[in-house]
């Protein structure tokens, strides 16, 4: 049973990391290169869509890692699982304090109502998101190292 939980946790966290990586290094660069208002409209739509899904995914990942840590409390490598959980907590805190406020503004923007500094706000979101991606990649690497 513990092995199934560990595999499920690795898959859920790994898919989350993959989505966030692709947003940072594939989707947003594509949107930024689109002509006219297309990129901004795409980012607004992506903010609405992923803004609804990712909080659930982050919390689910964190809960699964916590369950793995508790279930394998006396296991070799459990310190890595706990550290991975701490990094996921850090990513959630970063999200709530830094990224979500920008996303909440950006997902309501249209070409008619966006602020003059919208590109600077999106660039700030991108930089913060890159840091968050690095944090969750580290968490995922520790999780895989501990559970495989």
What's the short story on this structure?
The chain has helices at 2-33, 38-71, 78-106, 118-147. By secondary structure, the protein is mainly alpha-helical. Helix 2 packs antiparallel against helix 3 (78-106) and helix 3 (78-106) runs antiparallel to helix 4 (118-147).
Total beta strands:
0
List the uncertain runs.
Answer: none
Number of discrete helical segments: 4
Compute the CA-based radius of gyration.
17 Å
Quaternary structure of the protein: single chain
Please state roughly what percent of the residues sit in beta strands, choosing from under 5%, 5-15%, 15-25%, 25-35%, 35-45% or over 45%: under 5%
Average pLDDT figure: 95
Structural class call reads mainly alpha
CA-CA gap between termini: 15 Å
SSE topology string: HHHH
Major β-sheet, in short?
none
Give the helix level as a range of percent: over 70%
Shape: elongated
Pfam families: Anthrone_oxy
Protein name: DUF1772 domain-containing protein
Transmembrane segments: 6-31, 52-73, 79-100, 129-147
InterPro entries: Anthrone_oxy
């Amino acid at each position: 049973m513990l092995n199934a939980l560990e595999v499920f946790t690795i898959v859920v966290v790994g898919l989350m990391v993959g989505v966030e990586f692709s947003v940072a290094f594939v989707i947003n660069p594509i949107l930024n290169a689109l002509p006219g208002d297309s990129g901004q409209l795409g980012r607004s739509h992506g903010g609405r869509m992923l803004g609804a899904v990712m909080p659930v995914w982050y919390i689910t990942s964190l809960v699964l890692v916590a369950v793995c840590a508790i279930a394998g409390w006396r296991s070799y490598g459990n310190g890595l699982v706990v550290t991975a959980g701490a990094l996921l907590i850090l990513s959630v805190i970063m999200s709530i304090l830094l990224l979500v406020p920008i996303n909440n503004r950006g997902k309501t923007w249209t070409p008619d109502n966006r602020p003059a500094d919208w590109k600077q706000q999106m660039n700030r979101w991108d930089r913060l998101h890159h840091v968050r991606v690095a944090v969750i990649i580290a968490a995922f690497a520790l999780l895989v190292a501990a559970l495989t």
